[in-house]
Amino acid sequence: MGGLAEETSQRLVIFGITGDLARKMTFRALYRLERRHLLDAPILGVASDDITVEELVNRAAEAIRHSGEPFDEAVFGRLAERLSYLPGDVTDAALYEQLAEQVGTDQSCLYYLEMPPSLFGPIVEHLGRAGLLQRSRVAVEKPFGHDLASARDLNTRMRAVLREDQILRVDHFLGKQPVADLECLRFANTTLAELWDRHSIAEIHITMAENFGVEERGGFYDAVGALRDVVQNHLLQVLALVAMEPPVGAGDDDLNDKKAEVFRAMPAAEPVHYVRGQYCGYSEVPGVADGSQTETFVALRLQIENWRWAGVPIFLRAGKALPERVTEVRLFTRRVPALAFMPHRERAQRNQIVLRIDPDPGLRLQLVAQDDQNAQAWRDVHLDSSFAHDLGEPIQPYERLLHAAIVGDRRLFAREDSIEETWRIVAPLLEHPGEVHPYERGSWGPEAAQALVRGHRSWQQPWLPANGRSR
To answer: What DSSP string runs through 236-287?
Structure first.
């Protein structure tokens, strides 16, 4: 079993290669890997569209150009030579007979299922019956279930034909540069490591804001909502990396073990500390049901009951049609005692540590100094780092994840136990969702979200690249 995780896939087979994810993300990621000479395997696309290989190549070229990626004909030429195509119905056993003839049963393949979750089980079972899984891995896109019971059912179905080390559950947030680098930022820097616990940190805020609505995705989104779409997966995975203990080694399970410990230490969320919102006009989006109660905004409070974080409240918020597109983690330090040398023995404002995940990833330390123009006032001092400026061009999330999947690095993928724990954490909110509060497009959500943090630090204006300031 251990050898499989270290074996580089000899072939990449992408189910759903003519779909939106391939057009928006996959072709660009493959092109960037080709440019960096990190692709060394043929790529077989599988989909129901009756097209030729030449048409697939043209679609790939159009997608890459449309992404804004600088287009190098020589690089794309190498990628195009890797591409082949097999049309067919993924629920038909005949397709897998053809696949076995083309691929063979002794190759190590990466099967990437860019398909609806309802097809994960049938595809994997067909691959197993065709003898195509012995040395291979299978990558699946979120959502992995829609609640705890369905996640367990899907895990059971996949584990009937696959070992856990053969399953790669893709969450593109885990491929973002600052998320992937959190382990190093926290534990390789004493300046941060010594502050990173309940003795120094008073509370944690995580914000994921989008300045656009559901748009043409109304039919999909209305059955999902913000809690399932981004909190159960993206934000809880980020929180685990923020809160975990240092891994004991570099193995695939060492990191995932520590993330799972965080989830196990978290009590289930309480509906009394949960706010749902829906932006005005959502019900008019095509595909949205009349009178829909689906939330487009959520804010919630969580706890981690372990030695490092006991007593530190954690606030998460995520929403659509908000003023900005930004994702950040913000840690507030505890306040110092009143300072006797100040005219009114004032207590300084809390320091803040801000990790911006999107856009323009970076790290900010917000300190306090005395205002030279007003000796009785405080002034914020910001120590900022832009990762792109200081560390070079970032690797794109799908580029990072595809390469990790091909070479068998499972550290960037969610594990079965963590998936089930995150569904457990949000289960009470799914069972007792509460009312939906309307909010105006371009606002920071319903007023009830402000009440959620009453008695704590208020929600902060995010640190944005454009204005470089944060209140």
So the answer is: HHHHHHHHPPPPSSSSHHHHHHHHHHHHHTSPPP-GGGEEEEEETTGGGSTT
For 380-397, how does the pLDDT look when each residue is reduced to its tens digit (9 = 90+)?
A: 899 999 998 888 888 999
| pLDDT tier, 261 (very low <50, low <70, confident <90, very high otherwise) | very high
- The reply to whether 386 falls in a domain is yes
Residues making up the annotated binding site for substrate are 172, 176, 210, 229, 320
Task: Output the six-digit token pair for 300.
Answer: 């919630």
The angle subtended at Cα 243 by Cα 460 and Cα 448, nearest 5°, is 35
Query: Within this chain, do residues 177 and 324 fall inside the same structural domain, yes or no?
Result: yes
Residue 41 in this model has a pLDDT that exceeds 60:
yes
pLDDT for the residue 96: 97
Q: Which domain holds residue 189?
A: 172-396+414-450
Residue 2 pLDDT > 60: no
How far apart, in whole angstroms, are the C-alpha atoms of residue 355 and residue 357?
6
Element (DSSP H or E) covering residue 74: helix 73-82
126 is catalytic: no
Element (H, E) at 426: helix 416-431
Residue 470 pLDDT: 41
Residue 240 has pLDDT above 50, yes or no: yes
Whether residue 171 contacts residue 140, with contact meaning beta carbons closer than 8 Å, is answered with no
Note whether 464 and 453 are within 8 A (CB): no
Annotated binding residues for NADP(+), as ranges?
48, 89-90, 142
Spatial contact of 412 and 427, defined as CB atoms under 8 Å apart: no
Cα gap 313→301, rounded to integer Å: 7
Say which CATH number the domain at 267 has.
3.30.360.10
Residue positions forming the annotated binding site: 48, 89-90, 142, 172, 176, 210, 229, 320
Q: What is the CATH number of the domain that holds 87?
A: 3.40.50.720
- Please say whether the beta carbons of 174 and 401 come within 8 A: yes
Count CA atoms closer than 13 A to 155's CA, side-chain side: 21
SS3 letters for 205-228?
A: EEEEECCCCCHHHHHHHCCCHHHH
Tens of pLDDT, residue by residue over 62-100, are: 999 999 999 999 999 999 999 999 999 999 999 999 999
Per-residue model confidence (pLDDT) at position 344: 66
Tell me which of 126, 146, 199, 234 is the catalytic residue.
234
Residue 339 lies in a domain: yes
With respect to residue 151, please indicate whether it lies within any of the assigned structural domains.
no
Count structural domains, the chain: 2
Neighbour count for residue 390 (Cβ, 10 Å)? 10
